[in-house]
Specification:
By secondary structure, the protein is an alpha/beta fold. The chain has a single domain (11-198, 208-233), classed as Spore Coat Polysaccharide Biosynthesis Protein SpsA, Chain A (Alpha-Beta Complex). It has helices spanning 24-32, 51-57, 73-81, 98-109, 130-141, 161-167, 175-184, 197-200, 214-232, and strands at residues 11-17, 38-45, 61-65, 86-89, 114-117, 157-160, 189-193. Helix 5 runs parallel beside helix 9 and helix 7 (175-184) packs parallel to helix 9 (214-232). The model is unreliable at 203-208 (pLDDT under 50).
Length: 249
Amino acid sequence: MSPGNHPEPYVSVIIPAMNEAGTIAGVIAEARKVHPRCEVIVVVNGSTDKTADIATAMGAKVLLFRQALGHDVGRSVGAEAAIGEILLFTDGDLPVTAAQLRPFVAAISSGADVALNDYSGPVRSARPHPVVLSKHALNLLLGRSDLKGCTLTAVPHALSRGALDVLGSSILSKPPLAHAQAVMAGLQVQTAQHVPVGKLNAVRRKRRGIDPLQGIVVQDHLEALARVLEHRGPRAGFSDGTRRREMVR
């Protein structure tokens, strides 16, 4: 019989899943090994297969929604239900090992508020993906060019309980906005581990050659950029340098 969740978890692993019957058991098994005191929360939304049944049999806490919640809403739902001091986020279709997940927990345990996947996406192509460009642009505007294209958009990542208290669970449904808010709030945001999710994730079916989620993710980044400008002013806190605008007529 599969072990259940620890009654007093230190780590809450949150796994949104939609029709992931083929992978969810393995994802849960690896997630449970990240810490001796662990709870696994699977947010099953819009599934028509046996994902929820398998997750239940594996001893996970299952939050079942018959209708699809929308992109990344499962993160907010799972965070709201989590009781651990560290919240670790991954996906139901992502075959990540416990060894790859533990550095995120270790980073938060060592004092970080937000531990990011050290994954910027494919950056060497002649025409970088719009999402990759959006992530780099957001970090540049935030004054965190050191993060390159690493944001809360990519899983795995982890948050401290304190970070969740500052950000609130609802903002996690828009990862770029949560990322921007975390940096602007002065939370300690750092990378923790490189997990090549671009290679691990199943390739989504494209519509007319375009990933159907591309527009949603780019729009979320535009909203985050707007929030930064609203908070820091039209130049996002950057100076004019040597420009003397008063000389322009």
